[in-house]
Design brief:
- The structure is a single chain.
- The chain has 288 residues and is an all-alpha fold.
- It has a domain of 198 residues.
- 74% of the residues lie in helices and 3% in strands.
- It contains eleven helices and two strands.
- A two-stranded antiparallel sheet has the order 1-2.
- The longest helix is centred in the N-terminal third of the chain and has 32 residues.
- The radius of gyration is 19 Å and the shape is globular.
- The termini are far apart.
């Protein structure tokens, strides 16, 4: 049962799932960690990222890197309209943001239904070929997902730790009032953090839609995953989001392969409930 080919497939699937989960959770935890916004519209932005990839890659046949990154950038750029009209009124208003953004999520989802109907669409695969890695046959499209996510995450880490804007973002997350007294334009930092968060969310949505299926309701799963991951890692913790994504991705891949998707979901939610009871601030979070 636990043969090397099967275990290698579990590992590759787990790594690709973890890559998507980390991206979608980072977008969620970035908005919460800096602006204290609980983004219930997170899944809708992931869904829009999937449709952007569908048109740029599936319809207009742009090269895949341009399609996936360009589509995510378009969604992030257009989302600035919603940042101006909706999001900025709920910064540092955690409970109010939950209600308002739940309404925004429903509005975006059913607007997508009106535009694209409820039918599922499939996105063309990057490649149907297999690649031999260390004597194992690995689907090339999974490797593309892993590589794409790894590059974006590395660039995000360099931005946060090596640039003035990234350091200003971390300062604003710790204490926005003190950051403002030090000359940091918190409003501009909030806009920058918002664009980065939505970009990563849309990118994760494109990768997720390509792995499974695309529909106006596909954002429910990424939203649920974002909650699970940030609870595991700790709300507002970027390293925690990375750790939570890895744990959930590999656990889901292993359990769904050998025991079925029902057992995988049961264990995932069971662990989250136990963690909320025993350590409500998460594995790498801080108690408040």
């Amino acid at each position: 049962m636990f043969t090397l080919p099967i275990l290698s497939q579990v590992f590759v699937n787990g790594l690709s799932l973890s890559s998507i989960y980390i991206l979608v959770a980072l977008g969620f935890t970035l908005l919460f960690g800096i602006m204290r916004v609980v983004n219930f519209a997170h899944g809708a932005f992931a869904m829009l990222g999937g449709y952007a990839l569908f048109y740029l890659y599936g319809v207009y046949k742009l090269p895949y890197p341009i399609a996936i990154l360009g589509g995510s950038a378009i969604v992030a750029g257009l989302s600035l309209v919603l940042e101006r009209l909706v999001f900025r009124w709920f910064y540092h208003k955690m409970f109010q943001s939950m209600i308002a953004l739940l309404g925004l999520n429903l509005a975006l989802v059913y607007a997508a239904v009106l535009v694209w109907d409820v039918n599922e669409r499939s996105l063309p695969s990057v490649s149907d070929s297999m690649v031999e890695v260390a004597g194992m046959q690995v689907p090339a499209d999974r490797l593309v997902i892993i590589a794409m996510a790894a590059v974006v995450l590395a660039l995000f880490w360099l931005f946060v730790t090596r640039t003035r804007q990234g350091l200003a973002m971390r300062a604003a997350a710790l204490d926005p009032e003190i950051a403002a007294t030090q000359g940091i334009d918190t409003r501009r930092i909030y806009m920058l953090a918002f664009v980065i968060a939505i970009f990563m969310t849309a990118l994760a949505g494109g990768l997720y839609a390509q792995t499974y299926a695309l529909s106006p309701f596909m954002g429910e799963r990424p939203l649920m995953v974002a909650f699970i991951v940030v609870i595991l890692g700790g709300m507002g913790s970027v390293p925690g989001a990375a750790l939570g994504g890895l744990l959930l991705g590999f656990t889901e891949s292993f359990l769904s392969t050998f025991y079925g998707s029902s057992i995988s979901s049961f264990v995932s939610f069971g662990v989250v409930i136990a963690l909320l009871v025993l350590r409500p601030w998460g594995l790498l979070g801080k108690p408040e």
